[in-house]
Amino acid sequence: MSDRTVQRQKSAASNFTNPSLTLPGIPTLANPIRGFGSQINTAPPQTVTEVAPDIQKAQSADGQSSEPEVIKEKPLSHDISRISLHRPQAKLTVGEPGDKYEQEADMMANQIMAMPDYTLQREAMPEEEEIQTKPLNASIQRDILPEDEIQTKRSLQQATNGSLLVKGNLESQLDSSQSVQRDETATAEQSQSPETAMDVPAATALIPFDRNPLSSPGEQILFNSTLTDPTPNNFQLVYTGVGGNFDTRTGLATKTIPGLRSGNLPFFIDQNWNGTTPVTVQLQVQRTSNNAVVNTYNWTFGRKTNIPTTITQQEPETERPLPSTYSYKIGPDLIPTPGDDYLHQTILETFGQRTCNIVLADLSPAFRSANSGITTPEQITAHFFGTSSNNGTFTVSAGDMIYDQHGGGMPDISVFQAALTTMKEIYVELPQTYEVQPGVALGQYTIRRILKIDGSKMLKKTKR
Prior knowledge:
Shape: extended
Number of domains: 3
Number of strands: 20
Structural class: alpha+beta
Largest sheet: 7 strands, antiparallel
């Protein structure tokens, strides 16, 4: 506590005295006069004795209209209504109106009434100081929701759009990309008029998240960008590559996509890349009316050195709610090398063909009659679950980790109740492969989406 606190404690126990009330020949008050206001301190109650029977008789004889009060012994209080402002109780003799004693007493009463209530203020001030100076307890915020969890959840939310699966680093890489994005946005806005600068589409997902990825010669990188704006048709996305080609290995170095959703855009790095010549990709967000650039994003590639050979799923191979996120440790750990061994490295995800447990005999006669073209397991799977998948490119984040979110892909139970003769538990399986070099599998998994009899949806991912 500060010195001010000690002073306050002392003042709470002090007494106020005024020598001007002590006059020759006049009895003194038993206790000092206190300030007015709410009584907050906890000092023991004091008593004031005022006995003036002779005065009362004298006043009656003189025919005075004032009625002096006879106050029996009682705890000291601050009742203003009991104090005469013009004839204070300290006046113990009766004299002519306006004599020197009355004038002196009136002056003292006015001074006392003008005094501030120090007891009240000093009791209130510590509470006020505590409220103003008490810092926010950061550890409580961390206990409620750890910072790394906050970042991961924010990254998952911003990186997911519709059925788009989250690919890449969902923590530090997205944060760094957002920082670069803000810098690039500011640069773009400075070159535009105020009206144009206000209408800049916001990026919700820019894949790869890492703007400085490490890749191998001949590797395929999947770009996927989603931006939002009230008028998306007023913009176009223009990709320009150096050291590689779009769509195919012999495709063009520039790709223009109308609107603000690119979908998966393959970029193939030159197979003869030596790691020293530039490999870059630039994305320009342009206004279609005049091709004005309102935002720019850049990726600069480096070459991989340490090539990982293992991938380990951190979650158990049991059923989990759909959707769910899985985390993977990339290895092996290079013991002599401290820290991360595979940070920034790109990992391509690919999918095989879906299969499901619905067979032709499960379909009701009415459904088979209305869909006579469905006769094979492949056609059944395609009808209920489609044929396309949203694969992507991951980049290894801190701790040599990648994160993969799986959602959607399973219709509601009403779809199958209308198509099957007897409802049963439904599942659909999708083979998944992670590769760190072209054509070389790092890990292979089976993604099973499950619809329970009660309509709940689950997910199970196992290594093949």
